Amino acid sequence: MADLLARYREIFGDGGTVRIVRGPGRVNLIGEHTDYNGGFVMPMALEAAVRLALVPQADPVVTLWSEQFAERAEFALGGDEPAQAPHWLKYPMKVAEVLAEAGVKLSGFRAVVEGDVPVGSGLSSSAAYEVASALAFLAAARPDVPAGPAETAAAAHGLTTGRLALLCQTAEHRVGVRCGIMDQFISLHGKRGHAIVLDCRDLSYEAVPLPTDRAKVVVIDSGVRRKLTSGAYNERRSQCEEGAGRLRKFSPDIKDLRDVTPELFKVHEASLPKIVRRRCRHVVTEDARVLESARALKEGDIERFGELMNASHDSLRDDYEVSGPELDLLVRMARGVRGVLGSRLTGAGFGGCTVTLARPEAVEPLRAAVLAGYEKATGLAPRIWVSDAADGAAIET
Ligand code: GLA
Q: Which of 29, 32, 35, 236 to mutate to test the pocket of ligand 1 (most atoms within 8 A of CB)?
């Protein structure tokens, strides 16, 4: 943090009190592609995060230096999009836009942006960036707001963190991905040592403690990079909407796939076109798996939780078709290690990371197995983290 402060002075060379805000990335333990179907998810926030070190300015201009791209760019609040704005500038611009529309008073600021959530890896670097940007705006306009959790900063502007998550989601939509609410929500509501079970329809949630003495969460980056905006994600979402629309004819109460029980689905699945049927089957069974996982976790049944993670991956691979050879290989390798309870791809898919639940004594053998075989088979260097669940976004100083 001291480094980031020093970087601000180095880059901008001005005085003023520097504030640091943080929006964490996340790993989703189970509940994939269910959020935009009104269903259930179980993510946890990561220590890896996007941070901004900022100083409010009198001019209504936001000037940013990106550490990752070693590039400076700026935009005027309420102004037009600057010609040739770099892609990374679009996120804070869209966040500013939605905050202003929500009636939040905005002021200009200068900031250094840095992050250690790998981009395009399924760990929600974009949500982390949106949430951190939103907090930067809240902090810049209200220098009197003390350091503390996002809730305090949001309340100072008459907002809840749930509303803030929805605003950040809208910002992401405007950048081009019709994402669900999971990533922005967990970035704002993460709790140290806990996973969050979230009902994506009404945003009610429960924090469930993770038994870290009995099971570790291991995140492995396949090194395959995806572009969410590439259309496959939005296409899946449309297929789900089509399925829900067709099933609604049988039961008018169906709003989203969340309302389709596995039993109801069995009765009517034959009426759906083949691909839509497979997509829907994933979502319907995945919702049931999240609810059962939450029960298993609360009862300390980590073995069952692991089995459900495995079933989730198989469904994402076969029915939702968002896996790939590298992710499948990592999952197979993990499952072959004694003491691994379950392994699956995490996030949207099409590359990125897997998440594995492993007994503590299985972590080193898992690491060794992946290091020994993955790069040889794929030519890609894997990255492996044992991750603890972190707190949600905050104004740190
Ligand atoms: C991305 C989206 C989320 C969610 C996941 C898949 O991370 O941003 O809203 O849909 O994919 O579960």
A: 35
For residue range 168-184, list pLDDT tens digits in order.
Answer: 999 999 998 889 999 99
Residue 180 to residue 166: CA distance in whole angstroms: 9
Strand segments (E) across the chain:
19-30, 40-57, 61-66, 71-76, 108-115, 148-149, 194-199, 205-209, 216-221, 340-345, 353-358, 383-387, 394-395
Read off the pLDDT of residues 317-330 as tens digits, 9 standing for 90 and up: 999 999 999 999 99
> Per-residue confidence at 15, pLDDT binned at 50, 70, 90?
confident
**pLDDT tens for each residue of 83-94:** 889 999 999 999
> What single DSSP character describes residue 74?
E
Distance 128 CA to ligand 1 centre (A): 13
Banded model confidence at residue 1, pLDDT cuts 50, 70, 90:
low
Name the catalytic one among 3, 14, 116, 183. Answer: 183
| Nearest atom (ligand 1) to Cα of 180 | 9
Active site residue 183: yes
Structure tokens at 211: 């038994």
According to DSSP, residue 345 is labeled: E
Report CA(135)–ligand 1 centroid distance (Å).
21
Question: H/E element holding 271?
Answer: none
* Spatial separation of the C-alpha atoms in residues 52 and 333, rounded to whole Å: 37
User: Is residue 2 scored above 90 in pLDDT?
Assistant: no
Going from the C-alpha of 299 to that of each of 126, 262, 270, 312, the distances in angstroms are: 34, 23, 36, 20
Under DSSP, the state recorded for 320 is: I
pLDDT at 305 over 80: yes
Stretch (H or E) spanning 45: strand 40-57
Q: What is the pTM of this model?
A: 0.97
Rg of the chain over all Cα atoms, to the nearest angstrom: 21
Ligand 1: which of 41, 91, 121, 183 to mutate, most ligand atoms within 8 Å of CB?
A: 183
Q: How many Å lie between the centroid of ligand 1 and the Cα of residue 60? A: 33
Tell which atom from ligand 1 comes closest to the C-alpha of 122.
7
